[in-house]
Design goal:
Elements (H helix, E strand, L loop, with lengths): L2 H30 L6 H4 L2 E2 L2 E2 L10 H18 L1 H6 L1 H4 L1 H24 L28
Antiparallel strand pairs: 1-2
Amino acid sequence: MDQTLTGFGTVFVFLVLGIVFVAGGYLTARMLRPSRPNPEKNSTYECGEPAVGSAWVKFNIRFYVVALIFIIFDVEVVFLYPWATVFKQLGNFALVEVLIFAGILVLGLVYAWVKGDLDWVRPTPNIPKMPEMPKRRTGRANG
């Protein structure tokens, strides 16, 4: 019997069993749970407080920038775990590599700091405005 086909068959069986398990859980929950909807249950729930205003509130872009910076540095730190597991085997070479890696991360942090992306409240820029020019008369008679 072909070993590749047996491997794919095992994966297929696990895939089918996973789908059946999830679908069975949903169907069982749907059959057992009570269904008595009312306006209070269908309303938006926000930490026990009644929802006020529209859901389309404009958030400051600072929330997203800080979250992206956090995710970038958090994901980069994940790369340190495999290095830590083999550090004794690799010796000084691994130490130099991780110091270069950490240096690049520190440079990225300094860049974000200098650029002002880590400041929660940015000062509003003072943009000078040009004075309005007086309207010129064309010299032609009206009419």
